[in-house]
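Predict structure. Chain length: 95.
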Amino acid sequence: MNASEHDDRQNAARWYWQRTRRLTLALLALWLAFNLGVVWYAEELNTLLIGGVPLGFLLLSTVSLILFTAIATVYALLTNRWERQVRHWGERDDG
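Prediction complete.
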């Protein structure tokens, strides 16, 4: 491995971890904002009923699980795509 290939790999790794870190922080902020927001406004949300169930309870018991699953899915899909890009970062076309 020559110096250029080593630099390419370092740049690819740096690019990957910067994106992964930003994604992690953004998704964590989304999850935290949703859960704290629902708890903060639970009393007001519980005055609204959906199918006889208070909205605050509904949001925390079901929607938060759906959101968590969606966040985990987005994280997995994006990081897998980025890992594939990094794996092929240094490949050159021979044709």
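Summary: Residues 52-85 form one domain.
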